Amino acid sequence: VSVISISSAEIENKKATVAIYDVLGKEKLRHQCAASTDGKIEIDISTFKHGIYFIRLIQNGKVFQGRFVKE
To answer: CA distances (Å), 49 to each of 1, 32, 45, 63, in order?
Structure first.
């Protein structure tokens, strides 16, 4: 997997900050982006090493969190 997608009707056409952290809490990526009209954000993770990562999306004071595994 080299790209992850985040989809939500709550972020349609809105700007957001995406931050990705490794399991040690080190920030690996921080990116300002705008969701498409269908509420989708795609993030290139091709340079990330294999492992577990935590993702945080911040938009208008709301924080959405999740995790993913890069295999």
So the answer is: 11, 22, 9, 25
* Residue segments in the chain with a per-residue pLDDT below the cut of 50: none
Task: Please spell the DSSP secondary structure of the chain, one letter per residue.
Answer: --EEEEE-GGGTT-EEEEEEEETT--EEEEEEEE--TTSEEEEE-TTSPSEEEEEEEEETTEEEEEEEEE-
Q: How many residues does the chain have?
A: 71
Rg value, the chain, Cα: 12
> What are the tokens at 49?
């090493």
Query: How much is the pTM?
Result: 0.84
